[in-house]
Amino acid sequence: MQPSLEVVAPAGRIHSAHRRSSFLVIARSRLLLLMGCFALVAVIALFRVGYLGFVGSAPTQPSLTEALLPPRGEITDRNGTPLARNFPAYALWFNPKAMGDDGAPLIKKPAEVAAELKIIFPDIDVARAIRVLSSERGGYVLRRILPEDANKVMNLGEIALEVPREFDRHYPQGLLGAHVLGFVRENDEGKNEGAFGMEQVLDEQLSSADMRGEPVPLSLDLRVQGALEDELGKGMLATDAKGAAGIVLDVDTGEVLAMASLPAFDPNLSDAHRSPNIYNRVTNGVYELGSTFKPITIAAAIDGGVVRNLRKEWDASNVEIAGRQIRDLHSKGATLNVPESLVYSSNTVTARVADTLGEETMRKVMLDLKMNERPQIELQAKGRPLWPQELPNGKWSRITNMTVSYGHGIAVTPLHLANAYAAMVNGGLWRPATLRKIEAGDAPKGKRVFKASTSSRMRQMLRMIAMYGTGRSADAPGYRVGGKTGSAEKAGRGGYRQTSLITSFAAAFPMDRPRYVVVTVLDEPRATIAARAQRTAAFNAAPIVKELVPRIGPMLGVRPDANRDVDISDLRYLVEGRR
User: Is 281 in contact with 414 (CB distance < 8 Å)?
Assistant: First the structure.
């Protein structure tokens, strides 16, 4: 029997198998550890996403609409013509940190850099530029520069001179309508905000991301605005007046078609807020507007039943009251009827009519016309009227009632007067003025101040003033203009100044169907070669209307017609018989 053989593996092979088994265990452990790390990261990420979804807010990007919209909305006139809009622009900015905190901001000295900028920008203030370039805080060297000049600045090689692209507020019509539009100023956040005029009134709407994409139309008609400012400027120049004001108002809606205060200012200038001409004479200036109040008094008397028979003769002699004497500038006889008193602008008859009417009724009419309040319009610049002093019982004295009847002792804005005349000719309804465009059918109903029959009668008499009286110089052929002149001495220390006048003319057209009121005012018209010594409204404020109406009438759908007019056949003889 042969002995059995036992196979014994070599020791080396056993050791090698043991090592492979150990490596496999280690690899599996590491893989499991890595998978655990990935799982942990995934859990953390999921938890983070969930947390942001319920608690936090994920990073957002502006919408395409937001990115494309300018930072401030556009303002247009009622026909869509742009009045204020934003456009891209470049600025010249000095950044002292452009090279880091330790680096020199400029390669050359500030004076040398300023001299090179002077070559590019001849109008630059070199001294100021040096101050900015020497500052550790930096700042604007120039607020607005042209793109081609920006390239020249970059060629200087000064990294600290930056040309950031910004948005600028621009008024493409320049000075036109400046007192209505206003201007913007930069706030603490570096954004433009309305600081005056309708820019201030509409600031929230113009800056809102939801609304600034739609232009905001005003009630202004740019064509009418241009004509008004042009004619006012001519009248102001011809009489060497200190200032002028004018307004064109829609009698049925209260919309302001044009509003001008001269001298004007340029809202495109960065220092527009410092302009001495920023004062708005139409809404902020209060004046005694003289005889333009007489038709209001007569309308109140007709409404109150004091004036029933227009043929009645009223005493036209001087009125002696409270140590004072009320007299007419030019006497037209011992007696006058009411139409004659308006045509010849009689203080004495108007005062006697108001005295008969009584102060309580007269005062109520003035209150109904809002003559005691700041004018109702969107602008912030609104003057407070100088309301006559009242007695302890809240009433006016007898002499106050008389003087107010012909526009003395009470001071209001030209806008107050325009609103009153609109109510007097539109059927008797008072409406607030507005600078917002009103869509058809959306006009406010208004408050009744005069009877419709009274309004009809006043249209006749206002037309007669333009045909036979002090308003003849405003009678534009074919446009059936009616209105009343007013000339009043300006109040000063120690009383009225006889050498300083406020002249005005309040008109409406066409009087057979009034659609628009026009008020023109000249502040201190002086004697010139052209005007000589004739400083009253008939010779300066009224002629402005005569030139203005034919310019704006066709724009507003009113064409001249020599065959149409308001019917004055029942009143004509009352005036023509005495002429």
Answer: yes
By CB neighbour count within 10 A (0-12 exposed, 13-18 middle, 19+ buried), where does 313 fall?
middle
Half-sphere exposure of residue 522, counting CA atoms within 13 Å on the CB side? 33
Q: Which two tokens stand for residue 130?
A: 């040096």
DSSP state of 332: -
Distance CA 369, CA 145 (A): 51
Look at residues 402, 421, 403, 386 and name the one whose alpha carbon lies nearest to residue 508. 421
For residue 361, the Cα-to-chain-centroid distance in whole angstroms is 35
pTM of structure: 0.82
Helix (H, G, I), strand (E, B) or coil at 5: coil
Give the per-residue pLDDT at 331: 87
Phi, psi of 542 (to 5 degrees): -65, -45
Which helix (H) or strand (E) segment holds residue 325: the answer is strand 324-326
Q: Is 291 a catalytic residue?
A: yes
- DSSP symbols for 204-259: HHHH-TTTTTS-EEBS--HHHHHHHHHHHHHHHHHHT-SEEEEEEEETTT-BEEEE
Low-confidence ranges of the chain (pLDDT < 70): 1-20, 23-25, 27, 41, 45, 47-68, 101-103, 190, 492-496, 498-499, 527-534, 577-579
Residues present in the chain in total:
579
Alpha-carbon distance of 6 to 505, in angstroms, equals 139
Only one residue has tokens 């003087």, namely 403
Q: What angle do CA 207, 213, 215 make, to 5 degrees?
A: 90
Q: What is the biggest distance separating any 2 CA atoms in the chain, rounded to whole angstroms?
A: 178
Question: How is 465-496 classified by DSSP, letter by letter?
Answer: HHHHSTTGGG--TTS--EEEEEEEEEEETTEE
CA distance 142 to 90: 9
Burial 14-31 (b: 16+ CB within 10 A, else e): eeeeeeeeeeeeeeeeee
Catalytic residue among 207, 261, 275, 291: 291
